[in-house]
Amino acid sequence: MSEGIKSARREEIVDACARLYDKIPYKEITLLRIGEETSFSRPSIYNYFNSREEIFLALLEREYLSWTEDLNALPACKDADAFADAFACALEKRGRMLKLLATNLYDLEAGSGEAALIRFKRAYGAALQATRDCLSRSFPSLKDGDKDSFLYAVYPFMFGVYPYTAVTDKQKRAMDAAGVSYPAYSVRDITRALAIALLRGFQLDRRG
């Protein structure tokens, strides 16, 4: 089998996984369900992926690659507010990526082979570098340490942003019953607030 055919079939499997993930919960997505969405049988999937987790990790890898493209397309911004808004808007487009990060990443990595994990980590590393690059375009004098601080505040934050912005009716009822308020925030709202706070802090540090 040619590499082109193998790659196309892998993409078909990942596409099927993505369609299912947009409609039903992660735990309900089995290899059988994925196979039913493709042009070949469930056993054939093992010719391309070692586990269900590897398929989801490949989906997350693809999401990171799209996120990297978005970051690379961000123009230089004139100030912290403009950068924060552009960055937040780009992240808001990646709802599937944020959902995967919030609910399944540890299990996906644990259930995947090393080769699949290396491919994913390369995509993750490319996203980190793209974030550094867009910071450099907008803030050429920003110190490397400040860029690191931005990365390692924002990327861990990305693991938790989905649950704060995608509250189900069941969760709302539970919050009401528990007497806990739940102000409505979008991914853009809270990402923008974090990015502005970080960038203004860096500017204040330099003035001091």
Can you put this structure into words, describing what you see?
The chain folds into 2 domains: 1-48, Arc Repressor Mutant, subunit A, CATH 1.10.10; 53-207, Tetracycline Repressor, domain 2, CATH 1.10.357.10. It contains 12 helices and no strands. It has helices at residues 3-21, 31-36, 42-45, 52-73, 80-92, 95-103, 105-110, 114-138, 144-158, 161-165, 169-178, 187-207. Helix 4 (52-73) runs parallel beside helix 8 (114-138) and helix 9 (144-158) runs antiparallel to helix 12. The protein is globular, with a radius of gyration of 19 Å. The relative contact order is 0.12.
Topology:
Elements: H1 3-21, H2 31-36, H3 42-45, H4 52-73, H5 80-92, H6 95-103, H7 105-110, H8 114-138, H9 144-158, H10 161-165, H11 169-178, H12 187-207
Helix pairs in contact: 1-4, 4-6, 4-8, 5-12, 9-12
Labels describing this entry:
single chain; about 210 residues; mainly alpha; Arc Repressor Mutant, subunit A; Tetracycline Repressor, domain 2; 2 domains; globular
- Morphology call: globular
Extended strand count: 0
CATH C-level name of the largest domain: Mainly Alpha
CATH superfamily of the largest domain: Tetracycline Repressor, domain 2
> Tell me about the biggest sheet?
none
Write a compact overview of the structure shown.
By secondary structure, this protein is an all-alpha fold.
